Structures are given as structure tokens and as C-alpha cells.
Amino acid sequence: DSGVTQTPKHLITATGQRVTLRCSPRSGDLSVYWYQQSLDQGLQFLIQYYNGEERAKGNILERFSAQQFPDLHSELNLSSLELGDSALYFCASSVVLGLGTDTQYFGPGTRLTVL
Amino acid sequence: AQTVTQSQPEMSVQEAETVTLSCTYDTSESNYYLFWYKQPPSRQMILVIRQEAYKQQNATENRFSVNFQKAAKSFSLKISDSQLGDTAMYFCAFAYSGGGADGLTFGKGTHLIIQP
């Protein structure tokens, strides 16, 4: 158990809908990362938040957005869902003390199926 | 942008054997970190080992060790005395050490099967 929690574990929805995925980082970690894992794209970095502020952006679609709240949990919002958005979505967290890179610890993931 | 290449889509070895998974990467940066993550059938991403590019000494964690060749941009993972529980997807990942701001760049993975 990495200490990172994600809810829900599974989500089934229809095209055009909007969903919210939730992540709670490890105790003491200030940074949250979101990743998408799909068969055709592999594991892709979407976005990073640090202490409530957006820190880095990866291959995140405009239909997707995220935020990090004062209690440091994060939510990933996916809207106007398409079949191709079906994937496993991971959240990871790290301390991020400054220079260098801290190890990222991953949550169990949310399996999204868009029908 | 950096790229990570894992040229072995699948490998299969007998239990107790030693196996080496290959990873090469391409970057113009001099300061970075490299990781191996394991993803068993449960789909959980588990850190196996980490290597800082500025360290010449290869990282070791129990039965897992790496061969880091910075000039060749190569980062292979050696698993000694392989066990059935080592069966998983293994991903090589790169992180730029630019103040902790950036996500990981992953390779496409190697599916390792340990046969009894």
C-alpha cells in the first residue's frame, strides 16, 4: 500500500458525460500528479499540482481539468467523454522539497470505461 | 523532450534464473533521475529502484540492481534469483531534475513472465 488513495476504483459512463476522479496523497506529500494509461498511448503524464498550484502540464486534453484543494486532495475532471478516454487513471504523490526529483508513489488507479 | 525506449515487449525465464530488462533513453539534459516501476496483474504501480544521474554507483535493492551507462544513455534492470511474484509489466521512467516540476516519461514496458 503506497498510502495514496483514489476513488472510485471503477467508473462506467456514457459518451458526452462528465466525471470526477478523486485522489488523496500520502501524508506529508505536497505534490500530486495525474497519469493516464491506455493500450494505444501507454502511460502518459497529464498534469501536476504542488500545494494547490498547477506546476507542470503534460498531454492533457482541453476537455480535462484538475485542481488541488487546501487539504491537498486533488480531483481530475473529465468532460464531453469519448470512447477513447476509456483508460486507467493514476494519481501519484511526492514530497517535492525543492531541487531534484522526489520519488512518485502511485495510487491504485481508477478504471474508466466510456460506453 | 525526452524519450524512453524498452525494446523487449515480452520476456520469459524460469524461476531462480537471472534476467535483464533493457531501457534506453534520449535527453539533452545532464541532471535527471531514472526509475523502474513494476505493474503486477493488480495494476498497482510499484517503485522497484531509482538512480540519480549524477551518481556513478549503480543502485541496488535486494535482488534488483541496475546497470546505468550515462554516456550510452542506457539503464538496464537485473533481477537475480527470479521469483513467481516478479511476473509483471516493468516500466522504465525518466524524470528531469528541474526543481521537482515535471511528470515521469515512461517507456512502453516489458512484460516479464517467470515460469515455475
Assign the structural class of chain B, choosing from mainly alpha, mainly beta, alpha/beta, alpha+beta, or little secondary structure: mainly beta
What percent strand of chain A?
A: over 45%
Compute the gyration radius of chain B: what is it? 14 Å
Biggest sheet record of chain B: 6 strands, mixed
Order of SSEs of chain B: EEEEEEEEEEEE
Number of strands of chain B: 12
Rg of chain A, alpha carbons: 13 Å
Please summarize the sheet with the most strands of chain A: 7 strands, mixed
Helix-and-strand structural type of chain A = mainly beta
Runs of chain A in which pLDDT lies below 50 for 5 or more consecutive residues are none
Helix content of chain A: under 10%
End-to-end gap of chain A? 31 Å
Q: Could you report the average pLDDT of chain A, rounded to the nearest whole number?
A: 92
Low-confidence stretches of chain B: none
Specify which chain pair forms the largest interface.
Answer: A-B, 33 and 26 residues
Can you write the helix and strand succession of chain A as a string? EEEEEEEEEEE
What is the subunit arrangement here? Answer: heterodimer
Number of helices of chain A: 0
The overall pLDDT of chain B, averaged over residues, is 93
Alpha carbon gap, first and last residue of chain B = 41 Å
